[in-house]
Design goal:
By secondary structure, this protein is mostly helical. The protein has helices at about 30-45, 55-65, 75-80, 90-115, 130-145, 165-180, 185-190, 200-225, 235-240; strands at about 10, 15. The protein contains nine helices and two strands; from the N terminus they run E-E-H-H-H-H-H-H-H-H-H.
């Protein structure tokens, strides 16, 4: 996903395409109970190094919620835990534990439908450890975006600056901001056409632009959803149709979720 339309973030060494407006995040990422249960759930990953962090999980669910096309749980669960998914003591254990994950997903989808889903961090009162949390959150969002590249205008076509509309440029810049925060090692490639600049300054620009980038992506997704020919999907139905983690090959609703 690197390069191409992702590389159009800054030109002339620091003039951001995105207008950076103050967007304050004042909502907790998860409730206290959700955080406790989801932390336990992620700890059950067969390969913990492949699992998302709690902040990364919220960014991922945020990304799924705003994606205008359906993404089946059987497709996105491996992105949360890794290919081996998770280890549960029993079907009952799997059922009870996963309900918190899908409950949180459904709640975030409802917030999006109600136009109440916002970037969750207050960028005006950041603490030092918040930068790592924001990076993890952005990585989760980036992982969700990777599941539907076409939605975000990322494909194999080569599009020149002259062929891009202003809306395309904002969308491309927003994708680049998310990528730069999520995958710091991609920053040099994002800025390959910019004049020599201090990487600390560039990183600060990326973090400052992230709230506006997220808002741009969310608004773009809403416009795309209005153009879709099929009716809006029901997240509760998607949850029922997910493959059961017990390995039966049946849907969760016809297996452990009865």
């Amino acid at each position: 996903m690197r390069g191409g339309r992702w590389g159009n973030l800054l030109r002339d060494g620091g003039d951001a395409i995105l207008p950076v407006r103050g967007i304050r995040g004042d909502k907790p990422i998860f409730t206290v109970e959700e955080r406790e249960k989801l932390s336990d759930l992620l700890a059950r990953a067969v390969n913990p190094d492949e699992a998302l962090t709690v902040e990364g999980l919220h960014g991922f669910l945020f990304g799924l919620a705003i994606t205008p096309e359906p993404v089946m749980p059987s497709e996105w669960l491996p992105q949360v835990f890794g290919e081996a998914v998770a280890d549960f003591a029993s079907n009952v254990d799997a059922n009870e534990t996963l309900e918190y994950l899908f409950g949180a997903y459904h709640r975030i989808c409802i917030l999006n439908e109600q136009d109440l889903l916002y970037f969750p961090f207050d960028m005006e009162t950041l603490k030092e450890d918040d930068l790592e949390r924001i990076g993890e959150w952005a990585y989760g969002l980036y992982a969700a975006m990777c599941l539907r590249l076409n939605v975000w205008g990322i494909d194999e076509r080569v599009v020149t600056e002259l062929e891009m509309s202003d809306e395309d440029r904002y969308l491309s810049a927003s994708c680049s901001v998310v990528l730069g925060v999520a995958v710091p090692e991609s920053v040099p490639e994002l800025f390959e056409d910019a004049r020599q600049a201090d990487m600390g300054t560039i990183t600060a620009i990326l973090y400052a632009a992230l709230p506006e980038a997220v808002s741009t992506l969310r608004d773009h997704a809403r416009k795309v959803r209005k153009t879709l020919s099929y009716p809006p999907y029901d997240t509760e139905e998607l949850i029922k149709e997910r493959l059961c983690p017990c390995g039966s090959g049946k849907s969760f609703g016809d297996c452990c979720g009865k």
